[in-house]
Amino acid sequence: QVQLVESGGGLVQAGGSLRLSCAASGRTFTTYGMGWFRQAPGKEREFVAAISWSEGSTYYANSVKGRFTISKDNANNRVYLQMNSLKPEDTAVYYCAATSSPRFYGSVVRSGLRYNYWGQGTQVTVSS
Fold this sequence. Notes:
The protein has no helices and 11 strands. With 128 residues, it is mainly β. The strands form 2 sheets. Strands 2, 4, 5, 6, 9, 10 and 11 form a 7-stranded mixed sheet that branches. Strand 7 and strand 8 (78-83) form a beta hairpin.
């Protein structure tokens, strides 16, 4: 099992920045990749960004490309999401996820079905 705990959410004005952190514990050696998803009220969960644990390949949703950056700290089993130029439409609960599946590349990383571990989520609210 892998446990994930997110932190860093909060309230920020449009144009501002936040940095989310996800701490992984447990059987982290089984992790092949990690991702961030978000869910706004009344909307479906959507992919935000992902990173492969070994190679560090990164993937982004078009809506956040150029504004958000995903990174990792293998030594401390942490993944970060640096969010810049935030917009009101970025308001959502952000979830960290991890997968033990070695098939972590291309389009499959954008599907929530690929991930078998999830955090509890952290609220991000961007005011206009």
